[in-house]
Design a protein that fits this description.
With 411 residues, chain A is α+β, with helices and mostly antiparallel strands. Chain A has twelve helices and ten strands. Chain A starts with 6 loop residues before the first helix and ends with a helix. The mean pLDDT of chain A is 92. In chain B, the strands form three sheets. A four-stranded mixed sheet of chain B has the order 1-4-5-8, with helices on one face. Chain B has a four-stranded antiparallel sheet with strand order 2-3-7-6, with no helix packed on it. In chain B, strands 9-10 form a two-stranded antiparallel ribbon. The chains are: A alpha+beta (411), B alpha+beta (380).
Chain lengths: 411, 380
């Protein structure tokens, strides 16, 4: 056991920190062009797709270096990169499962944000039970014809391409009749409608497909192998980047300490109130434990071990913790915590009004509710942990009974 | 950066587990619950002689760090091992080392390392906090001796320890007037009453000091200068307690998981029901996080990291909560059988519970976390 950073890691951190000091735009990027320009800058510095093979534009960087970049971006409050889903999920999926043609055509464009991507998985009737999805892709000659609806699609409004799960065999058991496809979002028959979220913003969309035609060479992996591919994709979503979440929470915590020195409760600075102090002690301890666990995960990644179902421990931990911590923050702030605008600067999450609504404590609080739903809800994670880590027997489910009966009947 | 154990540490754990499961099976544990002394001195001696101690080699120790001691204590928590290892090594041992008093080291440690001498440390009094203001037992210099008057409560293995290190007040109130004085168990004027507590594997005693005379050379370090050593001792004790609670928790999780795989109700294994499965998954997350918190803190103490005190308090506050949840839910998963004396689950529940208030409870450590953060003593 040695939890020190090496001299090399420390030097790399300094290098990243210096680069960020010099390059973070003075004005926060808002328009698509501004955001694309910032994304491009990160790419040119080598801070995107760092772990990928060099032949696809990556750096083959160690997990430690990726973690350091993630931490320093969060520490500097840097604007998020534009193509998060493309970089985090689509490109790794293509690198693992795609054809050489698909990799050549898309991976580098994802990296440069020339192509923005979205993930078309959930449907109105298929959330946690994703494998029950109904959106269909029917083979017609050397094309697929897509019909159906997707929902909770982040960034679909600006996406150029989407990675889609659709049913390609309606007679097969539900997990075995799904394929993974890519499709151009700017084609006839694709309709995108934004959805307003609990936070008031609209990152989410509904997407409708009406006789959308896609060439067969857009199939990722084998026909009807989409479920397995989606599993690997989801594990990217679950495993990664815990340390940057830790830093984001630490930054919020430091700000909360400053606020508690200014904010008064019962006639005294909040920082002197025993109840507030208990909460502040609890929050810091919780964030530290998340950091320790993330270091443990990182040290395994450094040795080339890939987290399997254990990734669910991390996902469940950080998403539930975020909810709890954001609630405690709001408790401390009282009614100020509910203000989504117009907070006195000395109480605001970011004294700099540049952040607008996204800079309020309430906005972070609302967003914390998403974390225990997306990428597999907490309940799904607990099923995975129970069945695949603890080895508990599978639950009795209608669909499994039906499948077993079908098999027994010799269908 | 490596959070995994070294090969030597893995071997150490294997050795401890093998020794304890063979020498201290549950039948032995239960026998010791009813035993006046509460442990088997022969087993204790043989365990210590395997090289299970910190302390420099010149005194016969194996130079183990806190990570290794946490491994040993985690294994003890899963038994739960009845004996004075924690009292002797973590309490008295770390206080002696932290006092920097080489005469005391030479006087006590060789016998401790042989397994011939057991020790403990008396801290708590009528007021049950863990700060310097709680130490009131008076020690007055009289010629070439100190005269001790007062009470010490909940002294671990205080009824069997050969030597008791007493945190006593020799001067002004606050942190500056506290001294550590060694008192033999058979000193005149010392009355020892065994406590009756729920964890029968962790014996403790109330010590009444009535004009107990201790020779002046029994003072550790400088008069009035013991608080820093006691603070260090408390950090080690907080991490050691976390390790014991972690061991009890992991054992409770394993028993509950095994039970949920074989117990049937409504024609199904209860582990198939999400109500039970999800509980067990939450227990797993709590145990893994308790592991990370305990061993990070142990490493930070060994490395003398700037956040060592912070990490010790993070660990104790977090593991208190985690073990309460895990060992408690284990009883819930088991249902009625988990509530019986005959079934072993309560042994781990009580071991974890024993350590909850000791060496700082959840609230005390949360307050300490905040103090360390505000003082800027955070990771580098």
């Amino acid at each position: 056991m040695d939890l020190n950073y090496t001299a090399e890691d420390k030097a790399f951190r300094q290098q990243v920190r210096r680069w960020l000091e010099e390059n973070i735009p003075k004005k926060r990027p808002e328009t698509l062009d501004e955001r694309r320009a910032w994304h491009r800058k990160l790419y040119e510095a080598g801070y995107l797709g760092m772990g990928w093979p060099k032949e696809y534009g990556g750096q083959e960087a160690r997990p430690m270096e990726q973690a350091i970049v993630g931490e320093e971006l969060a520490r500097a409050n840097a604007p998020v990169s534009l193509n998060g889903l493309g970089i985090g999920i689509v490109a790794p999926t293509l690198i693992h499962h795609g054809t050489e043609h698909q990799k050549r055509n898309h991976v580098s464009k994802i990296l440069t944000a020339e192509e923005l991507w979205c993930q078309l998985y959930s449907e109105p009737n298929s959330g946690s039970d994703l494998a029950s999805l109904q959106c269909r892709a029917d083979v017609d000659g050397d094309e697929f014809v897509i019909n159906g609806q997707k929902i909770w699609t982040s960034g679909a409004v600006i996406a150029d391409w989407g990675i889609l799960l659709a049913r390609t065999d309606r007679s097969a058991p539900k997990h075995q009749g799904i394929s993974c496809l890519m499709l151009d979002m700017h084609q006839p028959g694709v309709e995108v409608r934004p959805l307003k979220q609990i936070s008031g913003s609209s990152e989410f969309c509904e997407v409708f497909f009406t006789n959308v035609r896609v060439n067969a060479d857009n199939l990722i992996g084998e026909m009807n192998a989409g479920w397995r591919i989606a599993q690997t994709t989801l594990s990217y979503e679950r495993g990664g980047n815990v340390l940057s979440r830790v830093v984001r929470l630490q930054e919020m915590y430091d700000r909360m300490i400053a606020v508690c020195k200014a904010l008064k409760r019962n006639g005294k600075p909040a920082i002197e109130d025993p109840n507030v102090r208990q909460k502040l002690g609890e929050i810091y301890a919780e964030i530290e434990v998340l950091r320790y666990s993330a270091l443990r995960l990182l040290s395994r990644l450094e040795k080339g071990q890939r987290p399997g179902p254990e990734a669910s421990i991390s996902k469940l931990h950080y998403s539930e913790l975020d909810k709890h911590v954001q609630e405690l923050f709001l408790d401390i702030l009282g009614p100020y915590g509910l203000q989504t605008g117009g907070l006195p600067p000395e109480y605001a999450l970011h004294a700099d009004s540049d952040f607008g609504e996204a800079g309020s404590w309430a906005y972070s609080f609302f967003w914390s509710r998403a974390g225990t739903i997306y990428a597999g809800s907490s309940e799904i994670q607990k099923n995975i942990l129970g069945e695949r880590v603890l080895g508990l027997p599978k639950e009795v489910r209608e669909d499994r009974i039906a499948l077993a009966q079908k098999a027994a009947a010799g269908d | 950066m490596d959070f995994d154990f070294t090969e030597d540490q893995v071997m150490l754990r294997g050795l401890v587990r093998e020794f304890l499961t063979e020498q201290a099976p549950v039948a032995h544990v239960r026998a010791m619950m009813d035993d006046e002394r509460g442990y088997d001195p022969d087993i204790y001696r043989r365990f210590v002689q395997l090289g299970m101690l910190p302390f420099p080699e010149e005194y016969g120790g194996a130079g183990l760090g806190m990570v290794e001691q946490a491994i040993i204590l985690e294994e003890m928590g899963r038994i739960p091992y009845p004996g004075p290892y924690f009292a002797t090594v973590i309490l008295a041992g770390s206080a002696i080392m932290a006092s920097g008093d080489e005469q005391a080291m030479a006087r006590y440690l060789p016998d401790v390392c042989n397994g011939d001498l057991t020790m403990t440390l008396a801290f708590l009094e009528d007021s049950i906090g863990w700060g310097p203001g709680e130490i009131a037992l008076a020690a007055k210099k009289d010629g070439d001796a100190y005269v001790l008057n007062g009470i010490k409560r909940f002294v671990p293995f205080g009824h069997t320890a050969d030597v008791i290190l007493v945190a006593a007040r020799t001067g002004s109130s606050g942190a500056k007037g506290i001294s550590l004085i060694a008192v033999p168990r058979d000193a005149a004027g010392l009355r020892i009453d065994k406590d009756v507590i729920s964890d029968l594997t962790e014996k403790s005693a109330t010590l009444h000091f009535d004009k107990v005379r201790a020779p002046a050379e029994n003072l550790l370090g400088a008069e009035g200068g013991a608080w820093p050593a006691l603070e260090t001792m408390l950090q080690h004790a907080a991490v050691g307690a976390s390790a014991e609670m972690l061991g009890a928790s992991r054992k409770s999780l394993e028993m509950s998981t095994d039970y949920a795989k074989v117990r049937k109700q409504f024609g199904q294994f209860i582990g198939q029901f999400q109500a039970v499965k999800h509980k067990l998954s939450e227990m797993l997350v709590a145990v893994e996080n308790a592991h990370a918190a305990t061993y990070y803190a142990a490493w930070a103490l060994d490395a003398d990291a700037p956040d060592a005190a912070l990490a010790a308090s993070v660990a104790k506050s977090f593991v208190n909560g985690a073990s309460r949840k895990v060992c408690g839910e284990a009883i819930q998963v088991h249902g009625g059988i988990g509530f019986t004396w005959e079934y072993d689950l309560h042994l781990y529940f009580k071991r974890a519970k024993y350590f909850e208030p000791m060496y700082g409870d959840l609230e005390e450590h949360r307050e300490r976390v905040l103090q360390e953060v505000l003082a800027g003593h955070i990771s580098g």
